[in-house]
Amino acid sequence: MRAHLIRRVLQSGLVLLVVGFVAFSMFRFVGDPVDNMLGPERTQADIARLRTDLGLDRPIPVQYARYLAQAVQGNLGVSYRLGRPVADILAERAPATLELAAVSGLLALVGGVALGVLTAIRRGGIATGVLMTLSLVGVSLPTFLIGIGLIYVFAICLGWLPSFGRGDTVQIGGWTTGLLTASGRRALILPALTLGLYQMTLIMRLVRSQMLEVLSHDHIRFARARGLPEWRVLFRHALQNALVPVITVAGLQLGSIIAFAIVTETVFQWPGLGLMFINAIRFVDIPVMAAYLMLISAMFVAINLLVDLLYLFIDPRLRPAQQRSGG
Amino acid sequence: MSVGPVLSLRDVSVSVPGRGARGARALAVDRVSVDIAAGEVLGIVGESGAGKSLLASAVTGLLPPRAGLSGGEVWIAGARVDHLPEARLRRLRGRVVGTVFQDPLGALNPLMTIGAQLAETIAVHLPLSRSAARQRAAEALAEVGIPAPADRLGCYPHELSGGMRQRVGIALALCAAPALLIADEPTTALDVSVQAQILALLKRLCRDRGMAVMLITHDMGVIAETADRIAVLYAGRLVETGPVRDVLDTPCHPYTDGLVAAVPRIDGRPGRLAQIPGAMPPPGARPAGCAFHPRCALARDRCRKDPAPEVAAAGGRAACWFPCRSLPARTDP
Ligand SMILES: Nc1ncnc2c1ncn2[C@@H]1O[C@H](COP(=O)(O)OP(=O)(O)OP(=O)(O)O)[C@@H](O)[C@H]1O
Ligand SMILES: [Mg+2]
Questions:
Q1: CATH for the stretch A90-326
Q2: Where are the domains of chain A?
Q3: Is the dihedral of CA B111, B117, B119, B123 positive or negative?
Q4: Is B17 in the pocket of ligand 1 (CB under 6 A)?
Q5: ipTM (interface pTM)
Q6: Which of B159, B185, B190 to mutate to test the interface with A (most CBs of A within 10 A)?
Q7: Average pLDDT, chain B
């Protein structure tokens, strides 16, 4: 198992190196950085000096290594469009996206598990049929359509909730939060629903099928034969076992929630990383695009590693064997 | 304490969905009556699909989803229980009736330590504090012959050997000192040497605690070694029952005879179940008359037409038109 973990860490490092290289290549191959940085009034000498200053005359691997070293220290360059350090822009934008992703993820997990258990226990019920049909819709509708639909109903027709923006925010240290103001919380509802719905239906269907599978196992029959109360059989023994595979999927989903926030943030003009990325693309703001790419990949990789560790924590069969024997 | 049997099944029938798409329900267990007294091991033997497990699950109402008790009465310690509501039945499980399953790894929750599984079971049945429950859990392991029981409480099921796991399964079933223990093929998944230990343990517990034991098996050898009385099931019907010695020495039903004959005796080692030619028909596809007649070398016209009558046989009963040991007069009436 330790070997497995070491392998996973190495793999993750490799993934990050590759992503870093892609980000680095964007500078070299999408437009000319020198072009981008000097105005039209440049001389050949200016260009040569800047190339040396930027290290562009060095071999590619050396340039790449320097780029990575800088990135690791948090120096991600300066935005072409805004003229500010990219790291500052990311720090400013990240709270909005992370809050949105966390609330959506929580919604998807809690809602998905609860509905999955419910539909597994009440197999033949009417509510189960309705939920399963709705979940198919949830899985197949594109996110932006869900968002637009929600805006139409709750913002335009009913006028209950705002259709764009983050509402009022409060600054705590370097973190701006919308969770502490009423308008911030109201503004969060529709985007969080939009972003979490797909994941919620996915988790619900997975939990349901896992529950049905586990409920047919012998240890569930034995738990009943031991006289355990039904709630304990369902929520301790069955759910615990059903959740093991759900963890992987839920972990991956949290990663994709952060990534898919691009669409939701665009629909709701949510001032997070996704919206920043879309704007960066529009203005070919390479440093911002490259930094976003690396940040998202780093989060993905970190979440994956965490999921692996969580597995160890939950499933004793994966832990290194102890000295136990028996006869 | 009542003097009557701990368990008494009266004409118990269990129905399962028929074979075809919307086929009628079929009887997988058909009017079976057996008793088990305190301190007695009743061995139930029969081929795969005979209905042994369904009969056992019918006792505490834990039948599989689409099977149902369709007739008869279940009496436990003098009280009728088959019509009790689920909540009342649940209070019998573990407390009055303990159950041990075939696959000891599959029967334990893989994600919980055996100490936690014992403690939760004890907590349901006995009014003990947490530490007292843990203490009791260690005692329960000691009673089933697990060495260093206190150290084992922190083990997960996969960390134990098959024999140890089955001992844990038995300890779990015995937490609340039930009056009846149902063991459905408790040794089938184990090595032969471990099998013998587990059977000896069951027998000792039965004697020491005056517990009634229903021991289900394919294996005539297991029955010969462990049971006091035997009940032979064929196609959902009880075909013969009686004291183990009598039935093994003078089997009356041709099916029992086939089972006994198939046990190799050269070295006294018990053997696997019979190679009687033919296959047992599934529920719903059972022939008229005696269900065994297509495979019976002694079958007559009568066996094909009319259900077999119950007759007195070596110390017990058999369901047969022409019980083996009265064969001299083999003439169709
Ligand atoms: N839930 C069910 N639905 C339909 N048929 C069932 C169900 N459970 C059991 N049966 C059928 O009932 C018959 C008896 O099953 P049972 O499990 O009692 O057999 P058994 O004697 O325990 O066999 P084995 O030795 O293989 O465990 C079998 O033919 C089986 O196919
Ligand atoms: Mg069985």
A1: 1.10.3720.10
A2: 90-326
A3: positive
A4: yes
A5: 0.85
A6: B159
A7: 87
